[in-house]
Amino acid sequence: MNNAASGPKTESFHDIIRGDKPVLVDFYADWCGPCKMLAPTLKQLAERTGDKLRIIKVDVDKSRWASGTYQIQSVPTMILFHKGKIVWRQSGVLPLQKLEAMVRPVIG
């Protein structure tokens, strides 16, 4: 049955990380100073990688399941997923060059 009135379906977190495109997830909190420092770096990374990499942010205070499921013990924590598998994981703020070096092998 086609239910056109419902509009576009939103993607779930699991759908996003299981897709063909690599996904860098930034687990953060609004109160976290280092998380705020990382935000411009992630924006630059997005500009450099274009549509080869998807970057999403997950607020650990609003999505408590994240800290349990992925054992997030400090923020920021970044996890790079490719086809549902964790390829790389790092806590703390990293410079753009190091982040780019970590994602390049996955995005080609």
TrEMBL record:
Keywords: Disulfide bond, Electron transport, Redox-active center, Transport
InterPro entries: Thioredoxin, Thioredoxin-like_sf, Thioredoxin_CS, Thioredoxin_domain
One Pfam family this sequence matches: Thioredoxin
Domain Thioredoxin: residue ranges: 1-108
Membership in a protein family: Belongs to the thioredoxin family.
NCBIfam families recorded: thioredoxin
Protein name from the UniProt record: Thioredoxin
Organism name: Larkinella bovis
Gene that encodes the chain: trxA
